[in-house]
Amino acid sequence: MKKINVAIIGVGSFTKALVEGVSFYIKNEDETRGLINPLVGDYKVSDINFVAAFDVDERKVGKKLHEAISQGANVTKDITSPVEFEAKVYRGPTADGVVEQMKGSFVKESSESSVDIAKVLKETGADVVLNLVPTGSDEATRMYAEAALDAGCSFINCIPTPLATIESWQKRFQDKGLVLLGDDTKSQLGATMLNRILLEALAMRGIQISKTEQDNIGGNADHFNLLYRKKSKEKTKSEALSSFIDCEEVKPKVTFQYTGKPSGSKRVELRIEGEMFGRTPIKISAVIEDEISINGAGTVVDAIRVAKLLVDRGMQKESEKVCAFLMKSPAKKMADKEAIESFRKIIEKK
Ligand SMILES: NC(=O)c1ccc[n+]([C@@H]2O[C@H](COP(=O)([O-])OP(=O)(O)OC[C@H]3O[C@@H](n4cnc5c(N)ncnc54)[C@H](O)[C@@H]3O)[C@@H](O)[C@H]2O)c1
Q1: Domain 4-186+294-346 annotated CATH 3.60.70.12
Q2: CATH number of the domain at 191-291, out of 3.40.50.2000, 3.40.50.300, 3.30.360.10, 1.10.3720.10?
Q3: Which residue has a Cα nearest atom 24 of ligand 1?
Q4: Ligand 1 pocket, 298 CB below 6 A?
Q5: Is residue 92 within 8 Å of residue 114, measured between CB atoms?
Q6: pLDDT score of 349
Q7: Can you give the pLDDT at residue 52?
Q8: Does position 1 have pLDDT exceeding 80, yes or no?
């Protein structure tokens, strides 16, 4: 079985979780616990192979990927010692990737000049490019997407910048027989999913939702970045909830707090209010505590495999349906049950 060659943009905490998670399933090939879908077509998580990575931080550029993931401001719980993938970290163009306040301890910008991204992607034989630059890096996202197109790679936009939801971008990838998935990956079971499940339960039981609030409290680099660039994240998170609310005046509220203590652990407090029988108030509070990057990587291993599968099977047009399952902000929105059923139909073994 052919491996799936993946290039990663942004060697941050998310990438550390992804590389170690894939390493875990390579070392334990028969292990299926912890996976949403053990198989995507015939692809196992252990078929994922990292061939290149791009970053701008001098502590990461020039290193092998398995070494770079433990450098700089990366914080996430170790899963296992990483496998030595062939991927090396190349210096990418900074564009709008690093806000002024991140410069210094969070990102020490390399003085090397940027490589030719498309050339590296071609030379390393990448099939799929994963975009994991900091939230709000719109210009950088578009630059890397152009390079992926040029090199003939599919692109997964894991961040909230609108890209896969833009029809002209979708068309450009599909015209080349590639796929573009996005925008902003859902975690395996993060605050968005839990909030959706609770809102769906209220709606199903005839309860009028009057308030839904989500306070995200974390200590990793992207949480610090969100202090300055929360707009796009607020939008994708709120959009993922608004379909459950049938009252125009009620808008989902999503806030972010940075703890100041470097940690991959995130705490989200949910507060939901509504009116039940006889317009009597009902309140629900819930807390979810997770290792945020690992939770995110749990979905991205499905996104990588399905991106390759859609191209293998000539099913590029099904991108919209798979995004409804994988992404916070898909072009076509679906209820979660419908989305997983349609995803599972697409990834069935043949
Ligand atoms: N569960 C999750 O953690 C989750 C879920 C959905 C989406 N995301 C998205 O994943 C992204 C990455 O999150 P993270 O926690 O790894 O962030 P991070 O800040 O730890 O890592 C980002 C990395 O990108 C690098 N970078 C900055 N500009 C760059 C450029 N122009 N080219 C290449 N590299 C560049 C930084 O040096 C850093 O190493 C964020 O945009 C976030 O919105 C995360």
Answers
A1: no
A2: 3.30.360.10
A3: 10
A4: no
A5: yes
A6: 83
A7: 98
A8: no
